[in-house]
Amino acid sequence: MKVNWLAAIGLAAAAWTGLPLAAHAQSGVFSVSDVEAQPAASSTYEVPAFPASSIETTTTGIAGPCGCEAAAEEETCPPWRLCHQRECGWNFTGFIDAGITGNNRYPVDRFNGVTTFNDRNEGQINQVWLTLAKAIDTEDCNWSWGGRVDAMWGSDYVFNQNAGFELHDDFTAHWNGAGNLYGAVIPQMYAEVGNDMNSIKVGRFFTPIGYEVVPATGNFFYSHAYTHQYGEPFYHNGVLYTRTASDNLNWFIGAVNGWDALDRETDPIGAILGSTWNNGDGLTVFWSGGLTNDPRTGGLATSATDFSNRYISSLVVTAQLTENLTYIFQNDLGWQEDNNVFDQGVGSAEWYGINNYLYYKINECWRAGGRFEWFRDDDGARVGAVRPGNQNAPFGLAGNFYEMTGGLNWTPRTNLTIRPEVRYDWFDGISSTGLLPFNAGTDTYQFTYAVDAILVF
Questions:
Q1: How far apart are CA 244 and CA 252, in angstroms?
Q2: Which among 1, 451, 4 has a CA at the least distance from the CA of 268?
Q3: Which of 26, 163, 412, 423 is the least buried, fewest Cβ under 10 Å from its Cβ?
Q4: Can you tell me the distance from the alpha carbon of 410 to that of 367, in angstroms, rounded to the nearest whole number?
């Protein structure tokens, strides 16, 4: 059964009336997921109020005499920018993220298994990011207009391609080529109107679903969780309405063209929605979800029009435990019809998991963080090698993926953040192809150590 306007209207009605709703992956060939309305994981931001779509692309720093002690006070030591909106109307900013990763398995293909975005056992220029944006006036009840265009070049491009734009509408390679280590994408391109209580976006925008985000400046860790890469969308193309109901409650609803797609050979309408509530005392609860019609994954699609219903639910709870200690809990649940890889598409595929994040602010220069994740790809339809040339299992890994990551964020200047991390991954499950997720398809575990630097301008 195709998702249609009735499904979208049903979800909209549930969001409008406040009814409780229960509980990215590969859109076809490539996988993709990031920011807009979720609480950001950034070490350089305090966890923002919903929505986070207004987040620029960072607040870290190198220019001027400001050291990290002064960096905490934006008024006395703001990050240096090419152009500030109060001066230019349109704000032109950007950042560069580059790093290096080591792997104790010394994989012959130099791929860090199914770990992303730092998927290579070598140095990578992950993101060279440019943003041109005009924000709406959220302090006034009068309506104003704005918009945003993001352009990104780097090794992360392969995770961030949209069907019908960077890819053809049948998900084959387009102007970006095929198999390249580096390429370019246009992550966002939208117009926006709104005021202090309303926002309407039309175009391509980051998904509001989930916790971790695409821009490096929005995350504490260099590497990404399985949940973010394989369990959630990265982008939507369509219309998104956001409403600030009160100081404690916000909600959004949107009509979109599925996951990570501007145009496909068929374009059934889908719906996304969510809400954030905070108690005003350090506790924030954010739920988001969607019902869309998307390509079957795991090699099951028989054509570019072989779609089935896909559902995603994400719950993110943020608790400010002390002035310096923050805990974040995430639970995702996904489901897609006729996508069970082990039963040749007979029966649904499910994926779900739990993420735990703990952040500690040591001082104005240093923050420490930990992440423990359990992600289950129940039917082998989600986790697989994304970049062409990666010899690790392309699909058909049914079981439990675990990862533990620990790291630091050092901000010596207001425009510079350095993020060292160590990470251990292991897999407990079965493979339909005989290929395993690490060490060129031969191992069930790996240990990686990495460091990257983010310079904003």
A1: 9
A2: 4
A3: 412
A4: 7
Strand partners, 403: 373, 425
Amino acid letter for position 318 = T
Number of domains comprising the chain: 1
Spatial separation of the C-alpha atoms in residues 408 and 430, rounded to whole Å: 34
| 65-74, 128-137, 289-298, 431-440: range with lowest mean pLDDT | 65-74
| Amino acid 66: pLDDT | 62
Range of the domain at 127: 5-456
pLDDT in tens, 172-222: 888 876 678 999 999 999 999 999 999 999 999 999 999 999 999 999 999
CATH number (domain holding residue 67) = 2.40.160.10
Cis-peptide, bond into residue 329, ω within 30° of zero: no
Return the residue matching tokens 């699609």.
Answer: 301
Count of other CB atoms within 10 angstroms of residue 318:
20
Beta strands in 135-219 (DSSP E): 144-154, 183-194, 198-206
> Using CA atoms, how far apart are residues 150 and 129, in angstroms rounded to an integer?
7
Residue 27 CB contacts under 8 Å (≥ 6 apart), including other chains: 163, 171, 233, 258, 259, 260, 261, 294, 295
